[in-house]
Amino acid sequence: MKLSLVVAAGVHTGKVIPVSVTEFKIGRDPDCQLRPASPSISKKHCAIVTKEEKVFVIDFGSTNGTFVNNEQVAGERELRNDDYFKAGPLEFKIKIEGVVQAKPAPQPVAVAANDASTVTSHDDADAMAMLMLTDGEDPSPSSSGNSPTAEASIPDGTTIMDVPAVPGEKKDDKKSKGFNADTAGAAASILSKYMRRPRT
């Protein structure tokens, strides 16, 4: 977060005063960061304080008061970007930059357990694995009512490996089915990752 005071009145109008400390004190006391030579400013007039990405002004019981948007501050008040801030005869515009607004978390979508029209990402992965196991054939249930599954096609504990072809070896006749070695290797790799993923 970048915080600064922009002089809003007087001969220094437009001058930017950066606020780089968490407690920026204004007053005639040598301990203050901004020390105007004006008797209208108390020795310890007020302070601009940064707390957890928020900015506040605190009046120290000054003689001539501290004002935000023409309202006198009693104790502490939060400051926002473009607020007008006045300490005695000094007038400033507050500039607050780089504050990240937290986005609300997305709301979960409720899905009925028996809602067949909703397909989850888990179902999509199952359908993709089924398609690879059936060599592109329709994985829908057959007329007998049986449906092939990944578990039925590949025994537990099986490791699928993509073995490169030996130079000079006859090409696989999978090409006659519209497949090439790269497609088969990619399918095997995806299926291997699918089989290793945790079940929920």
From TrEMBL:
InterPro entries per UniProt: Cell_Proc_Reg/RNA_Proc, FHA_dom, SMAD_FHA_dom_sf
Domain annotation FHA: ranges: 24-73
Stretch list, region Disordered: 134-182
Pfam families documented for this protein: FHA (PF00498)
Membrane-spanning residues: none
Polar residues bias spans: 140-150
Domain of life according to the entry: Bacteria
Name by which UniProt lists this protein: FHA domain-containing protein
Organism: Telmatocola sphagniphila
